[in-house]
Amino acid sequence: MADTSASASGQTLYSRGMMAVIAAQFFSAFGDNALLFVTLAVLKARFYPDWSQPVLQMAFVAAYILFAPFVGQVADSFAKGRVMMGANALKLFGAGAICFGFNPFIGYMLVGIGAAAYSPAKYGILGELTTGDRLVKANGLMESSTIAAILLGSMAGGVLADWSLTAALGVCVLAYAIAVAANLLIPRLAAARPGHTWHPAAMARGFFAACATLWRDGETRFSLLGTSLFWGAGVTLRFLLVLWVPAALGITDNATPTYLNASVAVGIVVGAGAAAKLVTLKTVARCMPAGVLIGVAVGFLAVQNAQLPSYLLLALTGMLGGFFVVPLNALLQDRGKKTVGAGNAIAVQNLGENAAMLLMLGLYSLAVKAGAPAVGIGVGFGALFALAIAALWYWKRRCR
Predict the structure, then answer these.
(1) What is the mean pLDDT of residues 90-118?
(2) DSSP 8-state class, residue 103
(3) Which residue from 43, 151, 158, 308 has the least number of CB within 10 angstroms?
(4) What are 227-282's pLDDT values in tens digits?
(5) CA distance linking residue 86 with residue 109, whole number of Å
(6) In this structure, is the dihedral angle defined by the CA atoms of residues 230, 232, 235 and 237, taken in order, positive or negative?
(7) Contact assessment for residue 293 and residue 313, using Cβ atoms and an 8 Å cutoff
(8) What's the rounded Cα separation, in Å, for the pair 116 and 68?
(9) How far apart are CA 383 and CA 398, in angstroms?
């Protein structure tokens, strides 16, 4: 396919290239979220202990951290659409391995490696297909596609796992196959920063130099801290719901936690849309009150024992989350593209986010293994998150 890089940044928000990216992201994220709940059902069927459930996600997250020094350069050294295709193919292989009875932790880690390579390319390509304040809107589209995939993928994973684990795993494999096909429709843009060395030590040095550049800049440090806290909390909440639903609501199926996660997804779509309309790159600080309120909402959720208020509180949590994280992502992409390259910026972001996930999941797993009640974990988790975002907001205002 011809190089379209010269005109790509002038395309409209709804160009063929952008729609191909959004479609590929939808099916890839659908597979990710369905596979998580299906693999959790596999662990339950094989009688793994409760504390091993977050360990599954930790294996996924560890792949992000181990490959963080390399995936940003890969995204910036090749056409990002082709990088996305290769990453989705690796996810397809990992899901297939679980489907055919291989160790679920190893299969899910392979999916994590694919996701680690996929993330810098999928976000980095947005800055190549559109520019300026349209980048916030493009992020809104990306987040809306992702959350719709979380909504449908989570529900499909939970419902199908209650019916047939084999069929559920087959749906995950099919979703990744469609994502690979969608990647073929993305224009082959010129590599953003070709010609770098591929020696692992030199790549690692370049990555950590990019880390230093972004963490020294006040705006990108603010974005990195905010998104790391958000996604660390988000993945922990997902596992907390799996434990909290039977303890607080008395429901033991696989589907109900996925429905509750789906209500979060619906809320994030709404919040992401509101952020695209109400927040620009110059007014990113408007998102901070929403971050504080996320923790408050989670604390109120933890003490509920009825389904309707639980769904409403989780939808509210999602709305606040979408409004909080979309502007922070756009800020990092804009500043990162101008300094270390969009792919490297997202790789640095992934390192921060996944380090936060690993830490929070580790603490959560230890709390569960120590016998802490799900309600108490939820209240403490919500309070700590609200305090952390409030401290970040205060620091941001002091540094003006």
Answers:
(1) 90
(2) -
(3) 308
(4) 999 988 888 888 888 889 998 888 888 788 888 988 887 888 789 888 878 887 77
(5) 16
(6) negative
(7) no
(8) 7
(9) 23
**Which long-range CB contacts under 8 A does 7-12 form with residues at least 24 apart?**
8/128, 8/129, 8/187, 8/189, 9/128, 9/129, 9/130, 9/131, 11/129, 11/130
In angstroms, rounded to a whole number, what is the distance separating the alpha carbons of residues 372 and 244?
Answer: 11
Distance of CA 195 to the CA centre of its chain: 29
Confidence at residue 368, expressed as pLDDT on a 0 to 100 scale: 86
Confidence class for position 1, pLDDT limits 50, 70, 90: very low
**Among candidates 141, 77, 134, 114, which has minimal Cα distance to 342?**
77
Q: Which tokens hold the place of 76?
A: 């910036």
| CA dist., res. 292 & res. 387, Å (int) | 7
345 contact partners, CB below 8 Å, separation of at least 6:
72, 124, 210, 214, 220, 332, 333, 335, 336, 337, 339
Output the DSSP codes for 186-232. S--PPPSS------HHHHHHHHHHHHHHHHHSHHHHHHHHHHHHHHH
pLDDT at 2 over 50: no
- Tokens at 64, concatenated: 């992000």
pLDDT at 5: 42
Most trustworthy range by pLDDT among 200-214, 294-308, 359-373: 294-308
Q: Specify the pLDDT at position 400.
A: 60
CB-hemisphere CA count at 13 Å for 344? 27
Q: Which tokens in the block code for residue 254? A: 């696989």
CA angle at 365 for the pair 361 and 368, rounded to the nearest 5°: 140
Please report the domains of the chain, with CATH numbers, ordered by start residue.
12-189+203-398 (1.20.1250.20)
